[in-house]
Design goal:
The protein is mainly beta. The chain is about 10% helix and about 45% strand. It contains 4 helices and 16 strands. A 5-stranded antiparallel β-sheet has the order 1-2-7-4-5. Strands 3, 6, 8 and 9 form a 4-stranded antiparallel β-sheet that branches. Strands 12-15-16 form a 3-stranded antiparallel β-sheet, with no helix packed on it. The longest helix is centred in the middle third of the chain and has 9 residues. It is globular and about 70 Å long. One of its GO terms (cellular component) is extracellular space.
């Protein structure tokens, strides 16, 4: 995740500056996605058809220095998005893949990555607003970039096989299953990003074939002392995720939350 640092103006358009962390610069990039919130700021009390469709033209450019030292913009993404009038009134998040842009910046990094986003409807009607950093802005709607890095760590060969299953897999033994957690379904609107993530979970039985690995647990279970239980299928390794969220004082916090993703399951 990248932070918005400041904004400036280039050819009448506001420039958003992102500061990339050393972790991003020093690792191989997997994907980078720019998130933009678009909304029509027309507060007149006029009636409108909420299902009326609009086509938005979205351009994302990078501001760089040309050979003469002046500023120049390079277009990296241009596409069209169709949405309803209701979406425009309420506001909607748009996602733009900027992986190539960020990769090129990382090869020759500067102080910050400068981006210009231009959003217009098919009639070039004004009023479509992408929020930019300022003291008056709603910081929950600020543009941000989600970054995922490739895992190039050379891992040792595991002595046991990690089992991955799906809901359709006919497997009764302890296994890792996919699970997507959607924070919006919980009503957790204080989380800015990500809105959802792959959490995974463990489920299944731990039969006597695990006796060699957990002999004490099985023997205690067979002895049946009060309060004892057999081997339980549970996470063996968990990793963290990065999150952007509001604290109790409505400050925007960027942090790494440990123990959020199940990487492997086992009996213990």
């Amino acid at each position: 995740m990248l932070h918005i640092m400041r904004h400036s103006v280039f050819k009448g358009l506001k420039v958003i500056d992102f500061r990339l962390s050393n972790k991003v610069l020093q690792n191989e990039l997997d994907e980078a996605v720019l998130n933009l919130h678009v909304q029509e700021l027309d507060n007149r009390n006029t009636t409108f058809d909420p299902e009326e469709l609009f086509t938005l033209n979205l351009q994302v450019s990078r501001v760089t220095r040309n050979s003469q030292g002046g500023k120049a913009s390079v277009l990296y993404s241009e596409n069209s998005v169709t949405m309803t009038r209701r979406d425009l009134k309420l506001g909607k998040w748009l996602k733009v893949n900027v992986t190539t842009m960020v990769e090129e910046f990382c090869r020759l990094p500067r102080e910050s990555l400068a981006i210009v986003a231009r959003v217009q409807d098919s009639s070039d009607r004004i009023g479509l607003v992408v929020p930019h950093p300022s003291s008056e802005s709603n910081h929950a709607l600020m543009p941000y970039i989600e970054v995922s890095l490739k895992d190039n760590t050379h891992k040792r060969t595991r002595r046991t096989v990690v089992m991955d299953c799906t809901e359709s897999t006919k497997e009764v033994r302890c296994c890792r299953y996919p699970l997507v957690v959607n924070f919006e379904e919980f009503g957790w609107d204080w989380i800015i990003a990500p809105k959802f993530y792959n959490a995974n979970y463990c489920s299944g039985e731990c039969p006597y074939s695990f006796l060699q690995k957990y002999p004490h647990t099985h023997l205690i279970h067979l002895s049946s002392p009060q309060g004892s239980v057999g081997p339980c299928c549970a996470p063996r390794r968990m990793t963290s995720i990065s999150m952007l969220y509001f604290d109790h004082n409505s400050n925007i916090i960027y942090g790494t939350i440990p123990g959020m993703v199940v990487e492997s399951c086992g009996c213990s």
